[in-house]
Amino acid sequence: MFWALLRSWVTDNDLNAWAAVAWRAEMIVVRGRAGMQANKHLLRSTAEVVGAVALAEVVSTLVLPLVIPQLPNFALHMLGMAVTLLIAAPLIIYRLMTSWGVKLSPVTQKVSTDVMRPATLVLVCGVAVTGFFAYWMACEAHRQSEVAFDALGERVRTEVARRMKEFEDGLKALRGLHEATEELTLVEFREYCKVVDPQVCFQGAMGQGFIQSVKKDDVGQFMAWSEEKLGKEFRIKTAGNLDQYDDYFVICHIEPLAANRAAWGLDVGSEINRRVAAETARATGLPTLTAKINLVQDQLHHNGFLYYLAVYQPGVSLDTRQQREEAFLGWVYMPITSELALDGILASGDGKVDVEVYDTMAIDPSNKLFCDHGYHFKSDDEKHSYLPIFSKSYPLIFGGRQWTVQISSNPNFDTSALFLRPFFTTVIGGTLTVLLAAMVWNMGTSRLRAIQLAESMTADLKTAKEEAEEGFRRFTTIFENVPVGVNLLDVDGCVLETNPAGLELWEARSQEEIRGRSILEQIPRQFHSQVIRSLCDALVGHPCCVEFQMTGLRGTNRLIELHAVVFENPTQTYKKSYLLTALRDVTVQRNAEADLREAREKAEEANQSKSEFLANMSHEIRTPMTAILGYADLLAEQSSSDTDHPERLEYIDTIRRNGEHLLAIINDILDLSKIEAGKMTVESVPMRLDALVRDVMDLMQVKANAKGLALDSIVESNIPMIIDSDPIRLRQILVNLLGNAIKFTEIGRVRLRVCYVPSQNSLRLSVEDSGIGMTESQLQRLFQAFVQADSSTARRFGGTGLGLRISKRLAQMLGGDISVTSEPGAGSVFCLSLALEKINENNWLTPDEACAAAMQKKEAIESSTKLPTHALQGMRILLAEDGPDNIRLISFHLRKAGAEVTTVENGKLTVEQMTQDGTVDGPLEVPSRFDVILTDMQMPEMDGYQATSLLREKGCTLPIVALTAHAMAGDLQKCLDAGCSNYTTKPIDRKRLIEVLQQYHPEAMQSAVI
Question: What is the rounded distance in angstroms from the CA atom of residue 707 to the CA atom of residue 718?
C-alpha cells in the first residue's frame, strides 16, 4: 500500500494507485476468509472503490484545470490529490470497515438513520464552501504572484541601471583627473589607480585607461614620445583590419597593467565596433558603449564591451560638435566583462527569477550579454522544457545603446507558498468538513462512548497512581543514598530538605537545623550574584552549573560545585515548583588542577628557555665554526703540494674532522629539540630510491675503508623506482644507521639490504653488521636520548647517543618505524620499515636494474654539480658581516669565484651603501652598484632583518641572500618573511654558497626573463 500511495504522489496515475490500495486491503480480508462468497465480496468491494476513485479523478484531472487554469502543474496535481482524497477516502474507509466485519453497536444502529441526514448535509455544504474558497484562493494567489514578480523585475532592472551608473561615475572622475593636469604622466595615472582601483571599485571592470588619437603622419613623433614617457616596450597593436582611416586610437595608459598588457598600445580604431563608439563619444561628449565585443585581455573570452568618455580641453566652449572636436584630447575608458559586471544580480531578485540581458531590442542568442538562472535544473532537458508562469522584458538605455533585460520566473518563484494556498485550503476545509460531519454523526452515540470513556479513564488513573507511588519510592531510595549532597530549595533559595550527604556538607546534625535556612547564608558575599543568576536560570529551565566557596555551620570552608534543575511536586507537600540541587565538594580536585596547571606553566617556561638557549648557542657556536672549518679547508688546499711537511696535512685534517664532529653534535641536539617540541616537519615528494641508496653507500664508503671494513648493498627483490617520501630525512636515517654499524664493527662487513614487502605494501631497509652486538637489557635502553648500550661503549667508541633516537622519531614521522635484533658478539640488524602509498605498476626495477640505474644517476649528478672555475665572474656583491675572520674567509671564496666584493660591518652601513647620499634615510641609488647583497642576520647596531626590511620598504628589488647561523624551526622562515630572496647557513658550505649566488648572476637573471 505504501508504494501505491507513493506512485500516486510522483505520477498522475492516481486512479490505478487508489485501486491498488483497495485491492491490497481487500486481499487482507480474503486471506482471513475462504470460499466463493469471499471472492464475490472482493469483486463487489473493488468495483465500488474504483467507481469512487474514478469520480474523484474526473474532478481533479478534468474540472480543476478548466476552473483554475492559472495554477502551475504541480499545484494542480496537489489540489487534485486533495480532492481525490476528500472524496474517495471516506468511501474506502467505510468499505474496509464493513469488509473487516466492524459491527455498529445497538445504540449506534438505532440513531444512525436520524444522524445520516444532517451529517450528509454538513458534508455536502462543507465540500461546496471549500471548493469556492479554494478557487478564490487560486485566483488571489495568481494576482499576488504577478504583483510580486513585477516588484522583483523592477528591482533587477534598477540594480542593472545602478551598476552601469557606477561605471559612468568612474569615467567622469577619471576625466576630471585629466582635465585637472596639463599632461597626465604614467606615474600620476598609476597613483590614481592605486587609490581608485578599478577592479575593486567597479565590479566587472578589468581596468581603466586613456586613449589618445594619433594621426598617421604623426606616428613617428608619437613613438618617440611614448618611448620617453611610456617605456621602450610600448608598441602600437591593431584589433582589426580597418586601414582606410588616417588616424589611430591608441591606448596609452591602462591599469592594472599586469592584467591588461595585451590591450596596452592597442589601436581601438582598427575595429569597427570600437571605432564607431569612440567617434560617437568624441562627437557628443556623452558616455558611449560599444556593441558586444571580445576583450583582447580577457583570456576567458567573456562577453564584454568598452565604455568611452571623451576628454576635452578645460575652459573651452563645447556647445557644438565642431567645438568639441577642436578641443578634443582623447578618451578615458573602461574595458568591462558583462558576466562579472552583472554577477550576483540574482540577489536583487531573491534567486526567484532568471535574468537575461541582450544588446539591442532583439531577443537573440547572438546579442546575449548575460544570463544567470536562480534555479539549477537536474538536466538540460528539464531546463528547456520548463515554461515559466511569468516573463517580462525591460528596455534600458546606457551609453547610447539600448539593452533589453528579460526577467522570467523560475521554480523557486513558481512553487512559492502562494500557489500552495488552494491545496491547503482544500485539505483544511475538507478535514474540517469531515470532522464536523463526524461530530454530528457521533452526537447520537455520545452517552455510550461517555460511559466507556469514564471506565477507561478510571482504570488509567488507578494505573498512573500506582506508577507514581512506585516512582516516588525509587526517588526516595536514591535521594537518601546518593553520595552527592542533594537539596530541595524553594524558589527563594531556602532549604526544605536535604539528604545525608547534604547534611555532611552543611555540617548539620539534623534536618531541622538547616530547614528554612537560605543557601546564601553560608556563601561569601562575592559569590551571591553568581549563585542567584544560576538559580534563576534553572527556574526557567536552562542548564545550571556554578562553582563557589561555602562555609559549613561548623566553620569548614569548601569549594562547592552546584547543579540545579526546576522540579514540580504533584503531591503539593511543598510549593508546586522548587529547585532540586546537587552539591559536590571539589576542593581536592581544584587544588590538584591548580598544582597541575602551575607545573605545566613551569614546564612550558623551561621549554621556552631551552629553545631560546639552543637558538643562541647555535648562532654563537656556528659563527666561529664557519671560520674554523673554512680556514681549515683553505690550509688543506694550500698545503696539498707541500711534500716537506706531510704532518701539516694531518694536523689540518684533525682540525677539520673534529670541527665537523662538533658540528654534527650541534645538529643532533637541535634536531632532537625540534622533534620533542613538535616543530620538526617532513615532506612527501617523488624521489629515486635507487639513487638515494647509492649516494648513501658512496658517502659511507670512505668511513668503511678507513676501518678496513667491507661495505656493500643488496637489493633482494623488485623495488619501486619512485616513492613518495622526504629524501633529506630518509638519507639522514640511513647515514645514522650505517655510521653506527661502521663505528661499532671492528672486523668483518656492514651490509644494507633493500626489500619490498607486498603483503604490507612497505619498504624494508636493513643494516647488518658483525660488530659487538647487544644484550636484551641494552636493547631496551637503546632509543633513549644521550644513552648508549653501556658506559664502556661510550668511553670506547664515543658518541652522544642521539642519532638512534632521532632516527626512530624521523622514521615514525615518515609513517614507519625502526626495529632491532642483536646478540652479544654476533652483530646487530637495524630494520627501517616505511609504509608506501599506491605504486604505479610500471614503476619497478629488478635488482640488476636498480644497481645500474643508481650508478647512471650518480654519474649524471656528479657531472651536473661541477661548478665552473669562475662561476661568479664579473658579479658585484655587497657582503655584510661583523666577524673579521668570516669577512676574510667569505671574501676569499667569492673573489676566487670571480666576484667583486665590497664589505661592511653592520646593517646600517649596508643601507648607506645602497642610498644616493650615503645615509640611512636617503633614497636608493638607481641603478645600483651591486648585483646581490649577502648579509649576516645577527649584527650590531642594525641586524640583517632590520636592514632587509628597510631596503624593501625603500623599493629595493636586488636579490638579498641571508647568511644565518640559526638552525631552529622558524629561523629560516623569519629570513624570508623579512624580505630575503634566499638563504644559506653557517658554517659556510662553499659549494652551496656559490650555487645560491650564481642564481642571481646578471646573465642568469636575464636568461630566466627571456
Answer: 32
